[in-house]
């Protein structure tokens, strides 16, 4: 399944964030238009996905609150 499906009906915690980030990495195909190695680009997909999801739980000071997510 994909990253979004793994989050449906789940509490957004470290376990669910980690699982979604790993799934995002597995299905991502980062562009090959850079000198960075494919393994690094894949790790960045996982890292940035996790950061994004964590920011929904602990937003930066002054960031607008997320109250609803539309599909």
Give a nutshell description of this structure:
This protein is mostly helical and 71 residues long. 55% of the residues lie in helices and 0% in strands.
Can you put this structure into words, describing what you see?
The protein is an all-alpha fold and 71 residues long. It is 55% helix and 0% strand. It is built from 3 helices and no strands. The model has no long low-confidence stretch (mean pLDDT 81).
The succession of helices and strands, N to C, reads HHH
Give the overall silhouette.
flat
Number of extended strands: 0
Strand content: under 5%
Q: What share of residues is helical?
A: 40-55%
Topology:
Blueprint: H1 3-7, H2 14-27, H3 38-57
Helix pairs in contact: 2-3
Summary keywords:
single chain; 71 residues; mainly alpha; 55% helix; 0% strand; flat
